[in-house]
Amino acid sequence: MTVERTRPRTFWRRTERWMVGVAMGIMAFVLEKAILRSIKKGEVEPPTEDPTEPVPTTLKSRGGEIDL
User: Fold this and answer.
1) How far is CA 63 from CA 20, 42, 56, 67, 68, in A?
2) Domain ranges of the chain
3) What gap in Å lies between CA 63 and CA 68, rounded to an integer?
4) What Å distances lie between residue 65 and 25, 55, 57, 58, 59, CA to CA?
5) Fewest beta carbons less than 10 Å away: which of 2, 5, 11, 29?
6) SS3 per residue for 13-29
7) CA gap 48, 28 in Å, rounded
8) Under 8 Å between Cβ of 38 and 44
9) How many CB atoms lie within 10 A of CB 39?
10) What single string gives the DSSP state of each residue in 9-67?
């Protein structure tokens, strides 16, 4: 569904949206670097698979039937 706009976006709105996008990108980059750094230092162990957990299965569906 499309909505008609009565007036175009203003310069200030575009600038604000661009600045928010840049800020979110910077925050994501910094958080990713911090997490990777802590994993490399050994402060946080990388996730390991628990051998007691069952292996996930793939479900295939054909209409009303489901095959495991």
Assistant:
1) 43, 48, 22, 11, 14
2) 10-47
3) 14
4) 43, 22, 16, 14, 10
5) 2
6) HHHHHHHHHHHHHHHHH
7) 24
8) yes
9) 13
10) PPHHHHHHHHHHHHHHHHHHHHHHHHHHHHHHHTSSPPP---TTSPPP---EEETTEEE
Q: For the full predicted model, state whether its pTM sits above 0.90.
A: no
Condensed to tens digits (0 to 9), the pLDDT of residues 21-59 reads: 999 999 999 999 998 888 888 877 666 666 677 766 776
Measured CA angle at 35 (ends 29, 40), to 5 deg: 125
